[in-house]
């Protein structure tokens, strides 16, 4: 990292630094969170896998929407990005009924104002993907909101634009992943505006941390399908009877190795590239 870079923000597993007025440095760590708690044990190369996947999707979706990526650094885990004015909503697209979408459906029959058919099961594929915005909570959990609440935050024209673009992005990536045996159940996107007020895709995109990836051959409804990347960690944590409050448990070597292998497998299946080649030359994803 350059000496002069000043720290701007911390996510649970990522950091942002300012390079200058126009550019940010995003650094993806190897930290992993489960049940909303960051664990004390790193997963080697996790930050590289997420950075490489994000770059891969940014390169393949630029004709749908411009994105903030300026450069992928040789370390494979840090990127230079355009500084944007971020929109104050999380842009979630759901193709399957899971997580908070499932909870809201059970309670109300709706998700973010989308009335859904009766009798759907947990993890069921939706008749069509839906755009389900959420507020950006500073602390605690994002709150799902309906169209009217999101329009209050970004305006009607911008809302219609992010909904249309987010659904197009989901359709492109979910088709791509499905052809490689991976279901993209849902995904969270963040958009910003450039100096001209044009919509730009920011943050990370279509990574295991921002999306639910399920192995297609293990997919079933009626429960939560195994997570492509974090299932070993979740199973291990459940086996301990840990109460899911901080601090989380340290992970044994076999759980670390198995989880690292799952991240690398997700990268290789989705991109068709050898992860070792990415580590040697990160720009191959672009
Ligand atoms: C920005 N975040 C959330 C992400 C963190 C925090 N291109 C951009 N321009 C301006 N601001 C942001 C971005 C991006 N991306 C995103 N906070 C600010 C966030 C990753 C790590 F610590």
Could you explain how this protein is built, in words?
This protein is of the alpha+beta class. 32% of the residues lie in helices and 26% in strands. The protein is built from seven helices and 16 strands. The protein has helices at 46-61, 99-108, 147-154, 156-178, 231-240, 253-271, 275-280; strands at 6-10, 14-18, 23-28, 33-34, 37-38, 69-72, 78-82, 85-86, 89-96, 110-111, 114-115, 125-131, 134-135, 182-193, 199-202, 211-215. The strands form four sheets. Strands 8, 9, 12, 13, 14, 15 and 16 form a seven-stranded antiparallel beta sheet that branches. It has a five-stranded antiparallel beta sheet with strand order 1-2-3-7-6. Helix 1 packs parallel to helix 6, helix 3 (147-154) packs across helix 4 and helix 5 (231-240) packs antiparallel against helix 6 (253-271). The model has no long low-confidence stretch (mean pLDDT 97). The structure holds ligand PZK. Ligand PZK is lined by residues 9-11, 14-16, 24, 26, 68, 81-84, 86, 192, 202-203.
Q: What is the topological layout?
A:
Elements: E1 6-10, E2 14-18, E3 23-28, E4 33-34, E5 37-38, H1 46-61, E6 69-72, E7 78-82, E8 85-86, E9 89-96, H2 99-108, E10 110-111, E11 114-115, E12 125-131, E13 134-135, H3 147-154, H4 156-178, E14 182-193, E15 199-202, E16 211-215, H5 231-240, H6 253-271, H7 275-280
Helix pairs in contact: 1-6, 3-4, 5-6
The structure holds ligand PZK.
What would you say about this model in short?
The chain is α+β, with helices and mostly antiparallel strands and 286 residues long. The protein is built from 7 helices and 16 strands.
């Amino acid at each position: 990292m350059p000496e002069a870079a000043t720290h701007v923000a911390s996510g649970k597993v990522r950091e942002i630094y300012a390079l200058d007025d126009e550019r940010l440095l995003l650094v993806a760590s190897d930290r992993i969170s489960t049940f909303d708690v960051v664990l004390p044990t790193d997963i080697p190369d996790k930050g590289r896998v997420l950075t490489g996947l994000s770059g891969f999707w940014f390169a393949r979706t630029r004709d749908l929407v411009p994105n903030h990526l300026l450069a992928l650094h040789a370390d494979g885990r840090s990127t230079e990005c355009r500084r944007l004015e971020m929109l104050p909503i999380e842009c979630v697209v759901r193709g399957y009924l899971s997580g908070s979408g499932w909870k809201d459906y059970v309670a109300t029959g709706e998700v973010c104002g989308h009335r859904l058919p009766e009798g759907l099961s947990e993890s069921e594929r939706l008749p069509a993907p839906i755009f389900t915005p959420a507020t950006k909570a500073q602390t605690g959990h994002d709150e799902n909101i309906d169209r009217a609440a999101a329009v209050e935050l970004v305006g009607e024209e911008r809302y219609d634009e992010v909904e249309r673009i987010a659904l197009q992005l989901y359709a492109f990536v979910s088709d791509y992943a499905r052809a490689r045996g991976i279901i993209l159940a849902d995904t969270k996107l963040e958009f910003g505006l450039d100096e001209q007020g044009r919509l730009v895709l920011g943050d990370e995109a279509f990574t295991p941390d921002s999306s639910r990836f399920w192995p297609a051959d293990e997919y079933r409804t009626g429960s939560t399908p195994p997570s492509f990347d974090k299932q070993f960690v979740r199973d291990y944590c459940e086996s301990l009877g840990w109460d899911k409050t901080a601090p989380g448990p340290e992970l044994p070597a076999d759980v670390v190795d198995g989880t690292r292998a799952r991240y690398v497998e997700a990268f290789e299946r989705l991109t068709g590239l050898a992860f070792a080649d990415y580590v040697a030359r990160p720009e191959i994803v672009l």
